[in-house]
Specification:
The protein is an alpha/beta fold. It is built from 15 helices and ten strands. Helix 2 packs across helix 8 and helix 3 packs parallel to helix 5. The N and C termini lie far apart (about 50 Å).
Length: about 325
């Protein structure tokens, strides 16, 4: 990678500044020991489901919004999201007294929609394609002058998500494998940047549903590939339905990520049951993909002694959780 390309990636100083900035809004989540039967090595789960909004998304949203000027705060903020980033933006906007407008797809989970409204945000509904959300957001920005808080393709958002990786290495200095969900790439790009700059010998692996495997295909081909919404919307992991990774995110992924693996819907469901049974944490499907990789794709993972799988969120509808837990 060229020097100019490296300079465009988030630095440790930027990540540490983000950690200090968001410390009064996001929480430092624990590593929970997860002795899954039949899984080699020592495994911990990074419990981002314990954030105030139930998702890591608060980190990036807070880091972006807490840097806005008083004039930008008066103008209000806008984003486009299926739910978790929406809640992160709504929560952080409320902290600074800014109006929050969320462009949300019609198939967003009701539990996430209700939580976003409860945080005081205004919701504008569009179709299921992420491209529709972006187009509507751009239209509203042009009309009202809102400040965009992008879900993933933004340096401040990446740096905020990177604080999750910073905490992992600070808590478990001997970690040699970190698994992160990947959709637009905000979490994976940030976590990998933090982990690999702090501990170069550690490896970082992205995990996504095979029904929304655009990031894995992009990684294999070395260029960003876009999948149509009718394909990515098939997965139960609603937080991982983005049609392509972001440009900034892909640059970080190419620099710091070892590989990206995909998991099936059945494996995601089995991983949700395993997480609840072993740790009593409640994962949403998107947060269970990393555990699914450990349980069912060990042959695709590098050897490790100490692995951390990020449980990116826990905002699962009660009826879905009950259905998954009662399956045999």
């Amino acid at each position: 990678m060229t020097t100019s390309a490296i300079d465009s990636l988030v630095s440790l100083d930027t990540i540490r500044a983000a950690a200090a900035r968001i410390s009064g809004v996001a929480v430092r989540t624990p590593l929970v020991r997860a002795p899954f039967p039949g899984v080699a090595g020592h495994v911990w789960l990074k419990a981002e489901s314990l954030q105030p909004i139930g998702s890591f998304k608060l980190r990036g949203a807070a880091n972006k919004i807490l840097q806005l000027t008083p004039d930008e705060i008066r103008r209000g903020v806008i984003t486009y999201s299926s739910g978790n980033h929406a809640q992160g933006v709504a929560y952080a906007a409320r902290e600074v007294g800014a109006k929050a407008v969320i462009v949300m797809p019609s198939n967003a989970p009701a539990i996430k929609r209700a939580a976003t409204l409860a945080l005081g945000a205004e919701i504008v509904e569009v179709g299921v394609a992420s491209s529709e959300r972006l187009a509507k957001s751009d239209e509203l920005v042009a009309r009202h002058g809102y400040i965009t808080v992008a879900p993933y393709d933004d340096e401040a958002v990446i740096a905020g998500q990177a604080t999750c990786g910073l905490e992992i290495v600070e808590t478990l200095p001997e970690v040699d494998l970190v698994l992160s969900p990947v959709s637009g790439g905000g979490l994976l790009s940030g976590v990998s940047a933090a982990v690999r700059q702090l501990r170069p010998e550690a490896l970082v692996v992205g995990v996504e549903p095979e029904l929304a495997g655009d990031a894995a295909e992009s990684f294999r081909k070395g260029e960003i590939v876009t999948w149509p919404a009718e394909l990515t919307s098939r997965t139960m992991a609603d937080g991982l339905r983005t049609q392509s990774v972001g440009v900034r995110n892909f640059a970080h992924i190419r620099a710091f990520v070892d590989r990206i693996v995909t998991v099936t819907e059945a494996e995601i469901r089995a991983a949700m049951r395993a997480i609840v049974a072993t740790t009593r944490l409640v994962p949403e499907p998107s947060g269970a993909v990393t555990t699914a990789a450990l349980l069912f794709h060990a042959h695709e993972l590098p050897a490790y002694r100490s692995a951390v799988a990020i449980v990116s969120g826990g905002n699962v509808a009660p009826e879905m959780l009950a259905e998954v837990l009662l399956e045999r």
